[in-house]
Amino acid sequence: MEVSNVRVEVMKTIEKSMEELLAQYLKPIDTNWQPSDFLPDSSSANFHEEVREIQGIAREMDYDLFAVLIGDTITEEALPTYESWLMSVQGIDQENRIGWTQWVRAWTAEENRHGDLLNKYLYLSGRVNMRAMEVSTQHLLNDGFDIQTGNDPYRNFVYTSFQELATNVSHRRVATLSKQSGNTLLAKMCGVIAADEARHAKAYQDFIRRIFELDPSEMMLAFEDMMRKKIVMPAHFLRETGGKIGDLFTHFSDAAQRQMVYTTQDYIDILKFLIKDWDISNIGSLNDSAEKARDYLMALPDRLFRISERIKVPEKQYQFQWIGI
After folding, report:
1. Alpha-carbon span 247 to 230, nearest angstrom
2. Which of 33, 50, 83, 269 is labelled catalytic?
């Protein structure tokens, strides 16, 4: 996808505020939470007792919910794909150590904690076939993903705005369901991850607002284009040992729908939220094509809702290779 010089100039303009953006949306490393803050200390005399407690509670977790937790972990562990993809966006010069490159690296560093924390928890849970999970993770990294943004910053930031909100919903719901079942440790872990995702979503939403101020018509067209293509989840190429690329995602998605962790309605609600947050109905100085794009976007939530009413989620559980017992 060829990116115009205007887009590069817009990225350079926003980059001038990067110090402010970094301070607003990312946290200092030395005071930020780390996985070891939540996990049993292996040097403690209580370590084995705490692990046995984790394992006892994990065995009682609903099968679908546990599968969703593993799938979310694999998605988080595929972080190198997301970093390399963002580094390829026009307007981001990865040879620099400042500006947009600094944002991508600092965002990656925060996100990296999520997979580390959940992976260690699942290992301690004693309920996971770790090799099967690790094979799925390696496949997801190896297969990459196609989110249909090209190297266009406008489309990429629409995607990240939407996706960070979606991961916030998923982790927050797992936290809520875990708390309801008495798993307070997992609830805390998923809660802090969800909070990170919400903060990151605000950053990417801010980037889009600034682009709308500088290049409203092209930003509107990019938003429309991404929603016509549909926002695909990072795990859409998910597979297991011996499986074909992407053949596991439907089962993972069905489990999330059955548990109400992430649903078709959530997709619609996120779209409605972004339309409101970016004040799409009141954006001015649009050309004719962008006006038509706005009309499409404003009507889209109701259209998607009508389609969603016809979707049936299978009741039968899929047996994931990831879950040992």
Report:
1. 19
2. 33
